[in-house]
Design a protein that fits this description.
- Helix 4 (about 55-80) runs antiparallel to helix 5.
- Helices cover about 70% and strands about 0% of the residues.
- It is elongated, with a radius of gyration of 20 Å.
- The N and C termini lie far apart (about 55 Å).
- It has a domain at about 55-119.
- It has about 120 residues and is an all-alpha fold.
C-alpha cells in the first residue's frame, strides 16, 4: 500500500540538488515577474503578483546584508594578517557586489510597498 502525499511537489524537493536549493534560498528574482512585457492587462497582473510576493523581500534583504557583513569582516580580518592580497581583494569585491544586491532588494521592497497600483 502506497502512502499518499499531501503535496505532489514534496518528492521533487527531496530530489533537488543542493546547489539549486542554495540558489532558491539566496536569489529572489526568480519569484518575480517582468512588468515591462505583454499587453496592459498582463503587466497589471504581473505587478499585482510582484506586490503579493513583496512580503518575502525583507528576508532576502537580511540574507544579503548578512553576506555583505561576512565578506567585509573576512576581508578586514585577512587585511590585518599576512595573507595574499588577491584573497583580501576578492572578499572586498564580493562584499561590494552583495551590498549592491542588498540595496537593490531594499529599493524594490520600498517601491512595492509604496505604490499599490502602477497602472
Amino acid at each position: 500500500m502506497e502512502i499518499q502525499r499531501d503535496n505532489p511537489s514534496e518528492g521533487a524537493l527531496q530530489n533537488e540538488p543542493f546547489w539549486h536549493l542554495l540558489y532558491r534560498y539566496f536569489w529572489p528574482f526568480a519569484y518575480f515577474r517582468d512588468v515591462t512585457r505583454g499587453v496592459r492587462m498582463e503587466r497589471q497582473q504581473n505587478y499585482r503578483h510582484n506586490r503579493a510576493m513583496r512580503v518575502h523581500l525583507p528576508g532576502f534583504v537580511f540574507k544579503w546584508v548578512t553576506l555583505t557583513a561576512l565578506c567585509f569582516f573576512f576581508g578586514m580580518t585577512l587585511g590585518s594578517v599576512p595573507a595574499p592580497l588577491a584573497l583580501t581583494a576578492c572578499f572586498f569585491v564580493t562584499g561590494s557586489w552583495t551590498l549592491v544586491v542588498s540595496v537593490l532588494l531594499l529599493t524594490a521592497w520600498c517601491w512595492l510597498e509604496r505604490f499599490p497600483e502602477l497602472y
